[in-house]
Amino acid sequence: MKMLAQRLLTLRKQHCLKQTEAAQALGLSISAYCRYEYGEREPTASTIVRMARYFGVSADYLLGLRDEP
């Protein structure tokens, strides 16, 4: 899940968001979002789908299975 953590961080910064703003937009607690971004915890499939939709990328991109967003 290290790739997911790196891509979440990059996408959040590209969208000029704070962690609290991204967490709120995704319906997550700030602590849960931070754990995903730091690679300390793995999100559920439904959370990955929400993240992908929010950032406008594919779930495969978030998971590191594709290099194109």
TrEMBL record:
Keywords, ordered alphabetically: DNA-binding
Matching Gene3D superfamilies: lambda repressor-like DNA-binding domains (1.10.260.40)
InterPro entries in UniProt: Cro/C1-type_HTH, Lambda_DNA-bd_dom_sf
CDD domains listed in its UniProt record: HTH_XRE (cd00093)
Pfam families: HTH_3
Domain (HTH cro/C1-type) ranges: 8-62
Protein name per its UniProtKB record: Helix-turn-helix transcriptional regulator
Organism: Pseudoflavonifractor hominis
